Amino acid sequence: MLKTKLLNSNPSFSKRRMIVFAVLFAVIGGFFLYRTFAAGPLVASLEAEQMSLPSGGSIITDTYASSGKAVRLRGSGVIQGIVSLPSSLSSYSLVAKATKCHGKWPSMRVELSGVQLISTTVSSSGWTTYSASSNAASGNRNVYISYTGGSACTTDLYLDVSRFYGVSVGTPAPTISLSATPTSVSAGSPSTLTWNSTNATSCSASGAWSGAQPTSGSVSTGALNTTSTYTLSCSGSGGSANASTTVTVTAATPPPPPPPPSSAFFYSASSFWNLPIPSTATIDPNSSAMVQSLLGSANSSAGTPIAVKSYSVAAYYADANTPRTTVSFTTNYNGGATKFLNVPIPANAVPANGTDAHMLIIDKSTNCEYDFWKAAKSSTGAWSAGVANALLKTETGTFIKPAIPTRGSSFALGGGLILPSEMAAGVINHALVFSMDAQYVKGGGPVLPSYTSDGQSTAAGTIPEGARVRLNPALDLNSLGLNSWQKIIAKAMQTYGMYLGDRGGGLTLYALDPKSDIFSNITYPWGDVTYAYMPPSLYGNMQVMTLGPQQSQSYSIVQPPAVCGSTLQ
Hints:
Number of helices: 5
Radius of gyration: 26 Å
Shape: globular
Helix content: 10-25%
């Protein structure tokens, strides 16, 4: 059609039409050049249609997509996949486009095994390449692409292909060694930073120091009054590298913790969830190495997430009038049981978004808490779950060995949740729960108070499920640049700490899903978002409390308390 029009047009067609065609061909040529350009050789690629699609995602045909297909995503969610890297990376690119609604474009965030690569707004209706540098090592890596559409209406995000580029042959990547002497000082004392790099042409400092630095050198920190983390980034023709070291500042007498709360929403006042860390508690000898695992899992410039509207826990009330139903099991993780009988599930119950589909029900007539993993309701109204069990809300908040839990640890779903009432009151009077990347969760069994674990890593410095971690109580929270609600959470980390309860896609805390009905008019100070964020630098100031021995574990049917009136079969 275009050729016919050109042949039939007047030879002196308008200057305006010539400009339009020139721009059109320049854009098309530039588009393909931009899509294929990257530093270093291509070592792997991952088509969007090869990834696990979230609810609402679909595969479409697109002539201009790399394989003739692309993925269309609506609203908000997470798409994930696995890529095998034969060598370390120098850069990454993703081809995407979007449609806007009411002037709003969708936002997109790309993570490679917990490390953020891209966080941006996709504001082009044509295929566009988004690129970032990366120094990921070889091996299997998880790719997570989270996206958020508009709130007034739904936007579309289209994904084509992710490409992974290695370091150019013959160009070695930079290396950095950075250390502090000593690594622990009393308040008001200095430490000395020493560093050396190879294959680097420039270095810059961040964290507790800043500015350009030589490729090797030594410098005093000056008098320190708070625990500080120093990061050095060096670049060369072969890529870039980062290194960090932390200097811990000890206080003569840490402030005493507040008394235990007189009452607790979840579990008894004497539960480990609701007791502050005593002043006599000790730090594990291997704490520094394990804190590096925390930093590895928290390595994200956007911040470490608090799961709110996805991968959190949705909680509902039941009572003596709530109809009871049978829940069929869809996995073989239930010690031989195939169904859960006589379970009270209110009509308005909806699991949390995300593949874990966690749901919690509190029966006010019996004080029983029902926990569900991968909960689902069919079109006929029948309920199913990967795992489900019940315990008394007035007890300790952990499923005693060898019951089947709904987290990797034996912790009940109410344990460690951030509640809207606490944020409104300005204080959290209990420990928090968190998850980490699988590569940082230690195998070999849990430590008490957890009786189970799905940790599998054998690497040094990894952390077992059940471990209690705290923010250094000597740290001045006003020195960290936290906003008011971040200080509330950080104070709970200092006073009560947080327990490693599961493995997941990065270091994550959990807040009660706003769709829950156990509190009315749920609002949070961070607004209507899927994830709120804490600064990742906070985790360099953590301390791992002394660990007990790892526990052996086995699984079988353990019936809920008789008062619940429900049975596993």
